[in-house]
Design goal:
This protein is an alpha/beta fold. 39% of the residues lie in helices and 18% in strands. It has a single domain, classed as Rossmann fold, CATH 3.40.50. The strands form two sheets. Strands 1-4-5 form a three-stranded parallel β-sheet, sandwiched between helices. Strands 2-3 form a two-stranded antiparallel sheet. Helix 1 crosses helix 3. The longest helix is centred in the first third of the chain and has 18 residues. It is globular. The protein starts with a helix and ends in a 10-residue tail after the last strand.
């Protein structure tokens, strides 16, 4: 899968990034969730594959699904920043069954592509509010050009 190749390429940068966040056991890696219908259609969540592989590349950091996407939203491709933000509002929630390992002080949210930041901002807000922990974002790439490129 492409997520594993992406993790190999981004691994050194990710290791440096998380090394600056505190003790190895204090960082937990998570990802931007996809709606269950999208994940069922694709057969996987690219951000989850990337997050797990990056955590492994960084020496086996703890990794877990902390948020879930509860609303099926429109595709983000043709939306501007304001449209993306409105489209995602209320779409994510903390997983009811998640229990933190002892000693976690920081969350690292992984996504594959950063376009306008609407998705990472919305998920980060839900994670920070729901856990009381600081959330840092790591993406494999950033879309260039107009705000209507790529996905979010």
């Amino acid at each position: 899968m492409l997520g594993r190749v992406m993790a190999e390429l981004a691994g050194p940068t990710f290791r440096d990034y998380v090394a600056g966040l505190g003790a190895p056991g204090s960082v937990l890696v998570t990802w931007v969730p996809a709606h269950r219908s999208v994940e069922r259609e694709r057969g996987y969540n690219q951000a989850a594959v990337l997050a797990r592989a990056l955590a492994n590349e960084a020496g086996g950091l703890p990794v877990a699904a902390i948020a879930r996407k509860v609303a099926s939203t429109r595709h983000q491709q043709r939306l501007d920043r304001a449209g993306r933000q409105a489209n995602l509002q209320g779409a994510f929630r903390i997983c009811d069954t998640f229990r933190f390992p002892v000693g976690i002080e920081t969350l690292v949210l992984v996504d594959d592509v950063y376009t306008t930041g609407a998705t990472s901002c919305e998920v980060s807000s839900v994670l920070a509010e729901g856990t009381g922990l600081p959330v840092r974002v790591f993406t494999f790439s950033r879309a260039s050009g107009g705000s209507l490129e790529g996905h979010d």
